[in-house]
DNA sequence: GTTATCACG
DNA sequence: ACGTACGTGATAACT
């Protein structure tokens, strides 16, 4: 017979939370509720042997019961954060167990359980409900039993019709009447004052129902009781209604969806390991991690040379292979290829580079788009192969990108990190194998082959697991249709590189050196002594000890000499302004002149940055070696550095296309705020418009100060506003900043509603999402620490905005490359700087390119406001402004 | 290796 | 009362 187990998730978790001491794992995550819940879950699975299982959770704050009775659950203490933050973990664990969990807006877990237990009964199931809540006893019947937790966590009483009769002398439906009479202080349900369990049971024995009691008010024993019942008739009825569990909730799934066929230890184990539940790991027979290292530790690998390749051509005819290309340098633009390894999950093939490159069948395989390649870091793999003469395509999976989408906030996405997370280990870190720093050595022969075989095997084994997680988290389209294509676009951009005018760069460097020299002398003169201006410590001593300037801010280690402090001190002493200027010039020389010169490729005169696609928590790219996303622009002195970025061919131009206010437009779309929508539909100057609204003036009354302040408010909104942050930015009192914010939200009420909603959803789900489903988890949204919690709340507000903008420009990049190719244009995409794309193009194509870029960038998603793109061209990046 | 500072969106 | 604006990377100084 089919057996359905329905678990009251919140109730069991809550019971566990209070029954167990507040456990924490090494990372500081609270785990006691998860632990207790899992114990209970495993016991129930073990003993009930269900064919179907569902865990129901309470949804958000309000339910339909609040409509009828505002005070419902009104007197409850706030749920402790230590508890709430464990709920997402429990859900994650249920996913690993392959058990469905569900919650429904406006309803409680009870109602979901009630509905399903009735449905199951009709279909001839036997049903067991697991809860700590007496209310659910009303659902007991011939085929429905209830396990009610007792003192401990896993201790439970089993209630069937007979037990209910024995214990209370009641029929199930009378549980509702019981509560109608006695009420429930924990839910703030009134009942009849002075009537407790004893009296209520006595009355029900005699009169059956609340209605029965009310009809017979005159016959009740005791004068006090009569009076009380008479005075609280309405409360009794209301209380009964509130206690009634709904059994006809609309559900968009059926019993068939709740099938449970047992769990797989290897899916559950990594999570238990992360939670540090050693006894539970043992219990599922996986205390030695599951697929575990044994598969990778004692690995076999075929090392082949040019003579053996012919025997392995069949190996290459398989549908999919894991491919790993080891290189000599993290920076693949200047790395040599050391070796290539392949795996089909059964055998590993190792070749040195000469063998791989000389093997025709392998080269054909690389170029065959129909032969699937699973890899780690498709961009690095493709670029390093291509730089050494081998084209490759057919990459259908990238373990790095998948891991990033699933865990966007994790800092480590090395293969060993991913194995650690997914399998609890199994692959040693590169640093441990090769050594690091001075100790680094190159492995050879079998040692190298086995290490690379392990990596390749790890890719092969991780692929299906990560693929499943992508699907489960609704990330598969983002992965396949966006991130994977973006990786190829970036590969081409990086290989193309940007031409640099080395002479002009040196020239600018010399000018700056001269200026720095003058500034140094002037500062030393004003200080009356020579010192290292670059040392915050020495500088602090001069400013605050010698010159006795006031100390406005301190760092952990001493005086703060940051720019915002110095700006405030500038009026007090001539030296301060000079120091600020010195810092500026010094930065330009060391980071930009010297830094960029070091990165120019000697033979081509180009710079090949690397774009990182798996770093930021929001979905943006980052750039390094060198970072070309932070070339100076705000101050003219630095901006001139953009003169050194030039087209790589004679008579070509640089074209820059940037989104106008993309983040605020995204906000307008996401929030649906009428005022903001209208502003963009009319294409108004958004900061002026904000100034008009916040300061209550007409357009021609907006002063430049007002516009500047309004601009800061807009930034603040995007970042997740706080009065403190805005006050720092504008250098005004916090109260004043708070007043700006209040007036902003008065003018844009839709934005306020949206921000509140995002934070509420983040608290409920544990994560926020962008327009293309990118996720970011925010565990600290439940922190009791004000700072951590506030940070998480601001992040919840900022990430959908910043992240959706990142989604949009990535989509535009992919479409733009397709367009350039399809129309056989010669123009090339070179750089992306978050809201701007930079191309080089033949002069003759400028008109066409401008048109296409606009078309494509304005079109990747349909927003409720237009996307606007500004295009500029020039002989250098500087001129394309 | 960490801290302070500052360049960008 | 609390006390940070969101997201990055590079450099120099110092531990």
TrEMBL record:
Report the PANTHER family cross-referenced here: DNA POLYMERASE I, DNA POLYMERASE NU
> What protein family does this chain belong to?
Belongs to the DNA polymerase type-A family.
Which parts of the sequence belong to the 3'-5' exonuclease domain? 301-471
Protein name, UniProt field: DNA polymerase I
Point out the signal peptide segment.
Answer: none
The GO terms describing molecular function are:
3'-5' exonuclease activity; 5'-3' exonuclease activity; DNA binding; DNA-directed DNA polymerase activity
Taking the record's annotation, the residue ranges forming a coiled coil are 495-529, 806-833
Transcription regulation found in the keyword field: no
Q: Which reaction does it catalyse?
A: DNA(n) + a 2'-deoxyribonucleoside 5'-triphosphate = DNA(n+1) + diphosphate
Annotated DNA-directed DNA polymerase family A palm domain ranges read 638-845
GO BP terms, alphabetized: DNA-templated DNA replication; double-strand break repair
For this protein, the record's Pfam families field holds: 5_3_exonuc, 5_3_exonuc_N, DNA_pol_A, DNA_polI_exo1
Is the Nuclease keyword given for this protein?
Answer: yes
Keywords assigned:
Coiled coil, DNA damage, DNA repair, DNA replication, DNA-binding, DNA-directed DNA polymerase, Exonuclease, Hydrolase, Nuclease, Nucleotidyltransferase, Transferase
What SUPFAM superfamilies does the entry give?
A: 5' to 3' exonuclease, C-terminal subdomain, DNA/RNA polymerases, PIN domain-like, Ribonuclease H-like
Which Enzyme Commission numbers does its entry carry? 2.7.7.7
Q: Which residues form the 5'-3' exonuclease domain?
A: 2-261
Assembly and interactions?
A: Single-chain monomer with multiple functions.
The record's InterPro entries line, in alphabetical order, gives: 3'-5'_exonuclease_dom, 5-3_exonucl_a-hlix_arch_N, 5-3_exonuclease, 5-3_exonuclease_C_sf, DNA-dir_DNA_pol_A_CS, DNA-dir_DNA_pol_A_palm_dom, DNA/RNA_pol_sf, DNA_polI_exonuclease
